[in-house]
Design brief:
Shape: globular
Number of domains: 2
Structural class: mainly alpha
CATH architecture of the largest domain: Up-down Bundle
CATH class of the largest domain: Mainly Alpha
Order of helices and strands: HHHHHHHHHHHEEHHH
Bound molecules: fe (ii) ion
Largest sheet: 2 strands, antiparallel
Strand order of the largest sheet: 1-2
Helix content: 55-70%
CATH topology of the largest domain: Ferritin
Number of helices: 14
Mean pLDDT: 93
Amino acid sequence: MYTQALNARDTTAPVAGPEEAARAARFQARIDAEERIEPNDWMPEAYRRTLTRQISQHAHSEIVGMLPEGNWITRAPTLKRKAALLAKVQDEAGHGLYLYSAAETLGTSREELFDQLLAGRAKYSSIFNYPTLTWADIGAIGWLVDGAAIMNQIPLCRCSYGPYARAMIRVCKEESFHQRQGYEIMLTLCRGTPEQKAMAQDALNRWWWPCLMMFGPPDAESQHSDQSAKWKIKRFSNDELRQKFVDATVPQGQYLGLTFPDPDLAYDEAAGHWRYGAIDWEEFKQVLAGNGPCNRQRMKQRRDAHAAGAWVREAAMAHAAKRARRAAAKADALQQAA
Ligand SMILES: [Fe+2]
Ligand SMILES: [Fe+2]
């Protein structure tokens, strides 16, 4: 959703001779027939680049998304809440790992993908550049951010690229759990003291608009959607997904007894949709440009975590090398004995 410029370049890539055109036609025919594309299959370079970018941005979002929530692990109000939050943050790490693995099948190494993130050359979801000021933010993130992620990711379970589609199936199951546990935090706060309910309301006020921005720019400005739709990477447009999210979420907020920070929010009986007010796209652009409330902090935390984890990576590599050496020595010994 943040990649219009790159994508414009992809779609205008020169097409080589008739052989290449025939391959591209066969590839598109497989996609049209709902066949899955697998890592060793031929694919257009633009398809490979688009997916590498999308999957790695998704992976980066999972990993950076651990930071705002990790902020509350030591301050969760009860042991039960702490255990659930720890499990959720670990799930997000797992999502990152599945996704980096899926991206690697397209031919870019995990190290290169990490480098792109840490050097600021890769994007991650704009939402994680907002701060988690109170415990209610943990509820709001689960309810709204994971809820928005589910809307985006359910259609990706049918993405044309096999490894991505398969990763999404498990990810979506875990995201549903995250969404429910977030909603349950909100429900508990809303049934609690007036101060707790006010805290829940404040969290909704701050997270609502950034969550609507998560779906990316309006369709009219989203140049890459056409090609992604043709390749069956993207099954719904940004605006369609945003509308689905609003329609699903507004009744949930009403059940909580909260109000949405949008005076224009109104139910359109004829269309059967909740209509929402104008989104502040200037804010979105600023966050993407690195000027959100927490961009610098997030990148610093991620770089520090990567540097602090260097010994773990080195130890894992040394261990793998030792095992490989031992296995080779054992194979040699067996061969000599035979
Ligand atoms: Fe996730
Ligand atoms: Fe999640």
